[in-house]
Amino acid sequence: MKRNAKLVLALLLSVLMFVVVACGSDENTSGNSDASSDSGESNDDVRKVTIFEDAKRSEEEKVQQMYEDFTEETGIEVEQIVVPGDGIEIFKKIDVQLVTGDDTDVIRLTNPLLIQKYMSNGWLAPLDDVMAEDGYDADSIYGEFLRKDEEGKTYVLPYQAGKWAVFYNKKVFDDAGVPYPSGQWTWDEYIETAKKLNDKDNGIYGSYMLDYDNYLYMLARQYEVEGYKEDGTSNYDDPKFAEALKFFGDLGNVHEIQPSWLEYKSNKLSWDGFMSGNYGMHFIGTWYTSLFVDQETYPRDWEVGVTQLPVPADGKGSNNFGVDSGYGINKSAAHPEEAYEFVKWMAENQYKYTGDLPARVDLTEDQIAAHFQKFSEDVNGEITAEEMNNALFNNELGFVDEKIVGPAAAEYGSIILQEGELYLVGQKSLEDTVQAIKERADKAIKDAETNK
Amino acid sequence: MKSTSTAPKRSLLDKIRLMPYKEKGAAIIFILPFMIGFLALNIFPIIYSFVISFMDYNTLKPLSDASFIGFENYLRIFDDPIALSAFVKSFKYTLVYVPGVMIFGFLLALLLNRTFALRGIARTMILMPYVANVVAVALIWSILLNPTNGPVNQFLAMLGIENLPLWLVGVDTALPTIALINVWQSLAFQTIVFLAAIQGVDKSLYEAAVIDGANKWQKIFHVTLPSISPTTFFLLVTSIIGSFQNYATVRMLTNGGPGNASRVISLNIYEEAFALNHYSYASAQAIVLFLIVLVLTIIQWKGQKRWVHY
């Protein structure tokens, strides 16, 4: 009898182990929660909201401070569902979580492609009714940055509308005896300035750019050339895209003002490479400014400056570009009311903590100036509020989307990178590259329409 | 006439209670934990993947919104040059990796079977790449094979070689380079298994061969290789399966680039499923890959009768 009992016990333990390991609870599979949720309070009276967060951000002090202030103001506790990985990678896991019925309340969507994907596939809860009930006039607060779907419904409240600028290393400029750039300038002037900063013997490049898809067509976007034709097919055969790809390739391969694509890839250079101090200028979005503030992670012995982005010399492409990000509520959210409070609060206030450019059109000039002033203080006055304002707002530049947004946008971007890379490392002609991108993008767009 | 013997009917609970006392019952209980895991974590995902490969689950929508579309995803593969070339690249990768790992593994095992100074240390050292983290391996090889300032190309330049290879960033060189790095990393497993097999060969066979006048090479080809053929067969089958499943090293070394030059099918399946949310299409590719591996394994299984001696 004893033997029998032992065997049954072993069997039960095995099954139990399997159930625990394979299934797990939401908390176990989703990761850690922040301190506020570990307080031991588990009664139903505690209002809380859950949000997907990447590992790095979940540990950032300013983010924790932001959540603490939100809790203090609203009484709603924030529980972070930490998703392994950083940046865009976490969305691969969030996709799977959503498909399997995850009820995490809020998703922070960091670019328009993600907003479009989650919105068009029905994973987000519409906000129109709840905003109407609340008397919340999102249009007047967020204006052009409030994205709506084809039916005019709102699913996301934007927390930032970043722009691009040129950030520069003052030490590199000083060492080369080159005056700091300011005001309107052209790409030709950018290239000439970078050449003067080049000091290859000491490992210094005048310029630094990353391997994001939009670098490969940034010039076309400045000219406001769309990624799609009116009939919905790819517009990559527009000569401006070829010009843009050649322009970007030449920066490294011909002018040698920055690591060529080959060097970038073979040396495995990183997105935060500019912080190494080995580059004179970095053309990047304003989201990058948080790195200049964070001297603990990025200690540096050089000061940073900022100026507006260069434009084509013909005067026809005088545009800045940028990207908006926002918060959406999971349609299966466990706490939809709290999630709405959270999304609203974050969209209005996040820029005060993270240094992002707000997506609010209702802010006065004084409020914008105060925001830049705070940033200036955070970087010990290396960049003044006026310099930030001039680089981003107080200039003659227009504004366009930095990304190609539309059907099969993720595939489109991926195709541009795959094919463009072959041109950039000299293993495919410009003509063949553009043709390949056009053909593959057309096919991806067609497939996307079929799969709708 | 009806039988009057009435065997006592046992309830299901009694049957379960008595199971451990019967040989079959005890066996079932012992393998049950594994079977539960195997069914839930292997068989169920395979069936699930098979089912959704016939659906239009190619966007990030709920599975309940997807419908069956027959063989459309399978037919789409033949109209997708990237997927087709990914299958071809996996074959090419296998053609470099499997002979490399088998031949070098066997030769290394022969060397390690000899008596020489510091043999124990040498045998341990051979294991180092096998236990090394794939990320670390990728990083080290990326540095070594850096075409602009890597030590390998610097050495080749010193020898006066022009047109230095681009290694991991060259369209023609990326895939074979990855395959050779993988040969280097996984060689230890093949070597150790070959070594164990070689040490198990009956010594009297070698003595008989020597009496018959066999030289060193004849002993290898006519005694060693036939004697270890079951081991060779096992390693061949597992190496081919493993080579088609290769993902991590490609991901870390080139991520399929430059362009799609090293985009093997495992990477393509992952990207289709998790970067582009083409779950059904990725599943169809995975099922085709499964069938290819299955067919190759069956061919080897049938072919073993000709050269494997048990």
Provide structural commentary.
The complex is a heterodimer of chains A (452) and B (310). Chain A is 44% helix and 14% strand. Chain A folds into two domains: 29-162 and 324-371, D-Maltodextrin-Binding Protein, domain 2 (3-Layer(aba) Sandwich), CATH 3.40.190.10; 163-322 and 384-450, D-Maltodextrin-Binding Protein, domain 2, CATH 3.40.190.10. The longest helix of chain A has 21 residues, at 2-22. Chain A is of the alpha/beta class and 452 residues long. In chain A, the strands form two sheets. In chain A, strands 3, 4, 5, 6, 7, 8 and 9 form a seven-stranded mixed beta sheet that branches. A two-stranded parallel ribbon of chain A has the order 1-2. With 310 residues, chain B is mainly alpha-helical. Chain B has two domains: 12-42, no CATH class; 80-307, MetI-like (MetI-like fold, Orthogonal Bundle), CATH 1.10.3720. Helix content of chain B is 69%, strand content 0%. Chain B is built from 15 helices and no strands. In chain B, 30% of the residues are buried. The chains are: A alpha/beta (452), B mainly alpha (310). Chains A and B meet through α1, α4, α12, α17 and α18 of A and α2 and α14 of B.
Number of domains of chain A: 2
Derived structural class of chain B: mainly alpha
Oligomer description? heterodimer
Query: What percent strand of chain A?
Result: 5-15%
Largest sheet features of chain B: none
Gross geometry of chain B: flat
Biggest interface, chains and residue tallies: A-B, 42 and 43 residues
Q: From the coordinates shown, what is the CATH architecture of the largest domain in chain A?
A: 3-Layer(aba) Sandwich
What is the C-level CATH assignment of the largest domain in chain B?
Mainly Alpha
